[in-house]
């Protein structure tokens, strides 16, 4: 099942190795936004950015990422809902 255009990524335990494949799946499915919450969310956001950019040779690999330390799930979902995508999409909550 493909991911929605806007993903709120819950990371209760911080980074896990499964994130690497998840990012590839996000790219495959055309995810436009990944908003990260939870433990070490800023670090997880940085890792996602590194996984997306890779060696920098493919400009097609792009996703907007944000981290939201100390914010509630509801606030981050509202933020993601306000993020404009074409076509418009729903917000999907995914747990790492």
How would you summarize this macromolecular structure in one to three sentences?
The chain contains three helices and four strands. By secondary structure, it is an alpha/beta fold. The two termini are 16 Å apart.
Report on this model:
This protein has one domain. It is 36% helix and 22% strand. It has helices spanning 18-29, 41-53, 73-82, and strands at residues 6-11, 33-38, 64-67, 91-95. The protein has a four-stranded parallel sheet with strand order 3-2-1-4, sandwiched between helices. The longest helix has 13 residues, at 41-53. The model has no long low-confidence stretch (mean pLDDT 93).
Order of helices and strands: EHEHEHE
How many alpha or pi helices? 3
Helix content: 25-40%
Unreliable stretches, pLDDT < 50, 5 or more residues? none
Backbone structural class = alpha/beta
How many E-type strands? 4
The gross shape turns out to be globular
Range of strand content = 15-25%
First and last CA, distance: 16 Å
**Strand order in the largest sheet:** 3-2-1-4
How many strands, which pairing sense, and closed or not: the largest β-sheet? 4 strands, parallel
Radius of gyration: 12 Å
The domain tally reads 1
Mean pLDDT level: 93
């Amino acid at each position: 099942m493909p991911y929605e255009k806007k993903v709120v990524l819950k990371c209760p335990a911080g980074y896990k190795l499964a994130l690497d494949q998840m990012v590839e799946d996000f790219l495959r499915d055309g995810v436009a936004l990944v908003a990260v919450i939870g433990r070490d969310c800023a670090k997880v956001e940085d890792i996602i950015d590194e996984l997306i950019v890779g060696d920098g040779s493919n400009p097609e690999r792009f996703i907007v990422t944000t981290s939201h330390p100390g914010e509630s799930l509801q606030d981050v979902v509202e933020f993601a809902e306000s993020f404009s995508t074409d076509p418009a999409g729903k917000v999907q909550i995914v747990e790492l």
